[in-house]
Automatic annotation (TrEMBL):
<feature type="region of interest" description="Disordered">
    <location>
        <begin position="1"/>
        <end position="21"/>
    </location>
</feature>
<dbReference type="InterPro" id="IPR036010">
    <property type="entry name" value="2Fe-2S_ferredoxin-like_sf"/>
</dbReference>
<protein>
    <submittedName>
        <fullName>Ferredoxin:FAD-dependent pyridine nucleotide-disulphide oxidoreductase:4Fe-4S ferredoxin, iron-sulfur binding</fullName>
    </submittedName>
</protein>
<dbReference type="InterPro" id="IPR023753">
    <property type="entry name" value="FAD/NAD-binding_dom"/>
</dbReference>
<keyword id="KW-0560">Oxidoreductase</keyword>
<dbReference type="InterPro" id="IPR009051">
    <property type="entry name" value="Helical_ferredxn"/>
</dbReference>
<dbReference type="GO" id="GO:0016491">
    <property type="term" value="F:oxidoreductase activity"/>
</dbReference>
<dbReference type="Pfam" id="PF13510">
    <property type="entry name" value="Fer2_4"/>
</dbReference>
<dbReference type="Pfam" id="PF07992">
    <property type="entry name" value="Pyr_redox_2"/>
</dbReference>
<dbReference type="InterPro" id="IPR042204">
    <property type="entry name" value="2Fe-2S-bd_N"/>
</dbReference>
<dbReference type="InterPro" id="IPR001041">
    <property type="entry name" value="2Fe-2S_ferredoxin-type"/>
</dbReference>
<dbReference type="InterPro" id="IPR028261">
    <property type="entry name" value="DPD_II"/>
</dbReference>
<dbReference type="GO" id="GO:0051536">
    <property type="term" value="F:iron-sulfur cluster binding"/>
</dbReference>
<dbReference type="InterPro" id="IPR036188">
    <property type="entry name" value="FAD/NAD-bd_sf"/>
</dbReference>
<feature type="domain" description="2Fe-2S ferredoxin-type">
    <location>
        <begin position="62"/>
        <end position="140"/>
    </location>
</feature>
<dbReference type="Pfam" id="PF14691">
    <property type="entry name" value="Fer4_20"/>
</dbReference>
Length: 714
C-alpha cells in the first residue's frame, strides 16, 4: 500500500493520519489518558494549577533555583522538574513522557516528592517554582512507583521471552538463533548460541531439551526441534572455512585456574577469556572433556565434535594442562602462587552403589566405568547377556553400548515406570528400537556368582506414598522376587560428588560430598575460590553445568575487578502462560506442519557400529524446521521501557496472564500493533494529534512506543 509521503526506505517510512492507512482507526489505541489527562488526586491538580500559573508569561526571565536530592540546581522559567533533573544528570523514571509531546502526567512513574509540602507530583508535568526542594528517590516513591507499574502491568499481556528460552537453564536466545537459521545466516545463529552455550556442538547432541517441552508450538502440533537446529548451527560453523571466534578484549592481567574440563569448567573458561582474563584449565586426565568424553558413547557424541568445540576455546588462548590432578599433582599453594582466582568444576564422577549383597563381585561394574572402558577399548566383550540397573542416561547409554559390543540380550531393570525414567526420551526410544528390554517397577536385592555366570535377584515394586519429589515412592511387593542370569551386570543408579576436591581446596563440603558455596554467586568462604557444576549441585544435566559455568565467570570477573560479588538479577518477564496458553489468535500465525524429521541410521545399521546415530539436518531441512518457529519473543525486548521499569520495581517477577480477552495483532505493510502490549500511555495518539495533517515518521513513532505494542513489520 502506498502511504502519502512515503519513500521506499524503511527508516523514512511515513504514516499520515489523513492518509488511507486503516491503522488510524483500527490499529492505534485511543486511550482516555491521552485525550483527557487524568490525575489521581485533587490536591495534585491544584498544585499543578498553581505551578502553571508561574509559567514564562507570568514571570521575569530570571533563572529559578531549586534543590534536587540535596543538590542546588538552576533552570530557566518554564522548565519542568523533569527538565531540571535531566539537566543536572539526575535520572527520574518515565513511561508516558515523550520530550517532543505535551506531558499528560498519566502514568505517575516520574513521581517525585516536594519536601516540606507533603506533596507528590509527576515531574514531567510540574513546572519548577523558586525554592522548591525535590526528592526523586526514597522508600515512599519506590512504593508508589511499584504500585503504578503493578497497575500498568495488570492491563498488559505478552511474552517478553519465549517459553523455550525461559526454560533453557543457560538462557539461550532460542527465537533469535532460529530466526537466523530461517534467514540462512548460520554465522549469526552460532554467534547468538555462543552468547550462552559455548559448547554448541556437544549440547546440540546431548541436551534432553527441556526447552522443547515448553515450546508454544505444542499449541498447534509438535515442538520445534530446537536442539537439532542448535546442532545444525554448530556443525555449519565447524565446517566453515572461518569458524566463529568471539572478539576478545585487552588482557586484564589477571589469571584464573579452572579445575576440571567438563561443561561447567569449559563454559567458565570461555566467558572468563571473553572478559580478558588469562585462563588455564587443569585436567587430571590426558584429554579435555571430562564425562562428555568418557561418559557418553561415541554413537551419541563423536570425538570430532568434542574436538571441534574445544578448538574454539584453544583458539581463544585458553591453556590446557593435562595430568594435573588438583590436590596431588597441583596443590592449592601452587595454584595460589600462580593464579588470582580458582574455579572448581570437578563434576560428580563417583558411581553410587546399589547397597545390595554381591555388588562388588567380579563381573559387576558401574555404568560410568563400563562406558569409560568401552571408550578406550571398543572391542571389549561384555558377554551375551547383560543386565543394567537404573533409569538415567548412563543406564541407557550402557545398554546401547552393550548391544554394539555384541551382547545378544540386554535388560534394564528400573524401579519405576518407563515414563518416570530421567533419561532423554529420544534415547529411551532409540534403545527400545535397538532391542533393549526395559523391565519396569523392579529393584535388585542380591547378586550371586554361579560358576561362570552372575545371577541377579530382583523384587517387584508397587507405588507407595509420594516422596519429597512428589513422585510416588516405589515399595517392594512381598514374595515377588525373581532372578535373571547375566554375564555382566552394570549398575547405573547415579553418581555422587567426590569431596576430595573440597579437601584439597580447604573449603567445606556437604554430607553428600558436594562443595559448599554461595548458591547465587558460587563463591566459597575463601573469596578467591569458586565452585560450580555437578560438584556443587550433584549430578545434573550438562546444560545446568553450562549455566553454572557462566554464572561463575560473572562472579569471578567481579571479584577480579575488585567489585562486590553479586549475582546478575533476572529481568522481569511477562508471559502469556504455559506453552499452549497463549491467545488462540497467536497460534493462527502458522498453519499445522509436523516437525521436519532429523535423519538417523536405521537400528539394523547402527547397532553394528559406533557411528553417530543421528545424522543431522541439511541446510534446507534446517531452514524448513526453523520456519515453524512462532517467534514468541517480544520484538521490543532489547529496549522495552515497561520491562525495564518492571525489572527495577518488580524484580525477579514473572507475570503470567492466562485470559486474553483483548488480544489482537493488527498488521499492515507499514506498522503492526499488538493491543495487549499497549499500556495506553497515549504517546502514539498524541503524536498523531500534534502532527495533525502532516506526515508522521513511523520509525520514530514505533521507537517512541514504550512497549512492544507498535513495531515495524520485520
Ligand atoms: S512489551 Fe515489554 S513487557 Fe511487554 S512483552 Fe514486550 S518486552 Fe515484555
Ligand atoms: S515456537 Fe519458537 S520461540 Fe516459540 S517457544 Fe517454540 S522455539 Fe521458542
Ligand atoms: S503503549 Fe505504544 S501503542 Fe500503546 S498508547 Fe503507548 S505508544 Fe501507543
Ligand atoms: S506521568 Fe510523567 S512519565 Fe508518566
Amino acid at each position: 500500500m502506498q502511504i502519502p509521503g512515503a519513500t521506499s526506505s524503511r527508516m523514512s517510512r511515513r504514516f499520515s493520519r489523513s492518509g488511507s492507512s486503516p491503522l488510524t482507526a483500527a490499529v492505534l489505541p485511543v486511550p482516555v489518558s491521552a485525550a483527557q489527562p487524568q490525575h489521581r488526586c485533587g490536591s495534585l491538580k491544584r498544585w499543578q494549577t498553581i505551578s502553571k500559573a508561574t509559567s514564562p508569561e507570568d514571570t521575569d526571565m530570571n533563572e529559578l533555583s531549586l534543590t534536587i536530592n540535596g543538590r542546588p540546581v538552576t533552570v530557566a522559567p518554564g522548565a519542568t522538574i523533569l527538565d531540571a533533573a535531566t539537566g543536572a544528570g539526575i535520572e527520574i523514571p518515565t513511561l508516558c513522557f515523550n520530550k517532543s509531546l505535551d506531558a499528560t502526567g498519566s502514568c505517575w512513574m516520574c513521581i517525585v516528592e516536594l519536601k516540606g509540602k507533603n506533596r507528590f507530583v509527576p515531574a514531567c508535568d510540574t513546572l519548577v517554582m523558586e525554592g522548591m526542594v525535590v526528592e526523586t528517590e526514597n522508600e515512599a516513591l519506590s512504593s508508589m512507583r511499584r504500585q503504578s507499574i503493578e497497575r500498568i502491568i495488570e492491563q498488559h499481556s505478552g511474552d517478553c521471552m519465549g517459553p523455550c528460552e525461559l526454560t533453557c537453564p543457560a538462557g539461550c536466545d532460542i527465537p533469535d538463533f532460529i530466526d537466523a537459521i530461517a534467514r540462512h545466516d548460520e554465522r549469526e545463529a552460532i554467534k547468538i548460541i555462543k552468547e550462552s552455550i559455548p559448547l554448541a556442538g556437544i549440547l546440540g547432541r546431548i541436551c534432553p531439551a527441556p526447552c522443547e517441552d515448553e515450546c508454544r508450538r505444542h499449541g498447534i502440533d509438535n515442538p520445534v526441534s530446537i536442539c537439532a537446529l542448535k546442532r545444525y548451527a554448530a556443525d555449519s560453523d565447524a565446517q566453515s572455512s572461518e569458524r566463529y571466534l568471539p572478539e576478545l578484549p585487552e588482557n586484564s592481567g589477571k589469571k584464573v585456574a579452572i579445575v576440571g574440563s567438563g561443561p561447567a569448567g569449559l563454559t567458565a573458561a570461555f566467558f572468563l577469556r571473553r572478559k580478558g582474563h588469562a585462563v588455564t584449565v587443569l585436567e587430571s586426565g590426558t584429554e579435555a572433556g571430562g564425562m562428555m568424553r568418557y561418559g557418553i558413547p561415541r554413537f551419541r557424541l563423536p570425538e570430532s565434535v568434542i574436538e571441534s568445540d574445544l578448538a574454539t576455546l584453544r583458539d581463544m588462548g585458553i591453556e590446557f594442562r593435562f595430568n594435573s590432578e588438583f590436590g596431588t599433582a597441583v596443590t592449592l599453594n601452587a595454584v595460589k602462587s600462580e593464579f588470582d582466582a580458582l574455579f572448581l568444576a570437578v563434576g560428580a564422577q563417583k558411581a553410587s552403589t546399589m547397597n545390595i549383597p554381591g555388588e562388588d563381585i567380579p563381573g559387576v561394574v558401574s555404568g560410568i566405568s563400563f562406558l569409560r572402558k568401552s571408550a578406550f577399548a571398543p572391542q571389549m566383550l561384555p558377554g551375551a547377556r547383560v543386565v543394567v540397573t537404573g533409569g538415567g542416561n548412563t543406564a541407557i547409554d550402557a545398554a546401547r553400548t552393550a548391544i554394539r559390543l555384541g551382547a545378544s540380550s540386554v535388560t534394564i531393570l528400573y524401579r519405576r515406570t518407563i515414563k518416570d525414567m530421567p533419561a532423554n526420551r529420544a534415547e529411551i526410544e532409540e534403545a527400545l528400537a535397538e532391542g533393549v528390554t526395559i523391565v519396569e517397577r523392579v529393584a535388585p536385592t542380591l547378586i550371586r556368582s554361579l560358576n561362570d555366570l552372575l545371577e541377579i535377584t530382583a523384587i517387584k515394586m508397587e507405588q507407595g506414598e509420594p516422596d519429597e519429589s512428589g513422585r510416588r515412592r516405589p515399595v517392594p511387593v512381598p514374595g515377588s522376587e525373581f532372578t535373571v542370569k547375566a554375564d555382566t551386570i552394570i549398575s547405573a543408579i547415579g553418581q555422587k560428588v567426590d569431596s576430595a576436591a573440597a579437601g584439597a581446596a580447604a573449603i567445606e563440603s556437604g554430607s553428600g560430598g558436594e562443595l559448599l558455596v554461595d548458591p547465587e554467586t558460587l563463591q566459597s568462604e575463601t573469596p578467591w575460590i569458586f565452585a560450580g557444576g555437578d560438584c556443587v549441585s550433584g549430578a545434573d544435566l550438562a546444560i545446568q553445568a553450562v549455566a553454572q559455568g557462566k554464572r561463575a565467570a560473572h562472579s569471578i570477573d567481579l571479584f577480579l575487578s575488585g567489585k562486590p560479588v553479586v549475582a546478575e538479577k533476572p529481568a522481569f518477564n511477562s508471559s502469556f502462560g504455559a506453552r499452549d496458553e497463549a491467545p488462540e489468535a497467536f497460534y493462527q500465525k502458522k498453519s499445522p506442519a509436523g516437525r521436519v524429521p532429523v535423519p538417523e541410521l536405521t537400528p539394523e545399521v547402527r547397532t553394528t557400529c559406533f557411528d553417530e546415530v543421528v545424522t543431522g539436518y541439511t541446510a534446507e531441512s534446517a531452514r524448513e524446521e526453523a520456519l515453524r518457529c512462532l517467534q514468541c519473543r517480544c520484538n521490543a525486548i532489547a529496549d522495552c521501557r515497561l520491562r525495564e521499569l518492571a525489572s527495577r520495581y518488580l524484580p525477579s517477577r514473572i507475570t503470567v496472564q492466562h485470559d486474553h480477552p483483548g488480544f489482537y495483532k493488527a498488521e499492515s505493510a507499514e506498522i503492526s500493533m499488538e493491543r495487549e502490549k499497549c499500556v495506553d500511555c497515549g504517546i502514539c495518539v498524541r503524536m498523531i494529534e500534534q502532527l495533525h495533517g502532516t506526515a508522521i515518521d513511523l520509525t520514530i513513532m514505533t521507537e517512541s512506543c514504550p512497549t512492544g505494542a507498535l513495531s515495524l513489520p520485520g
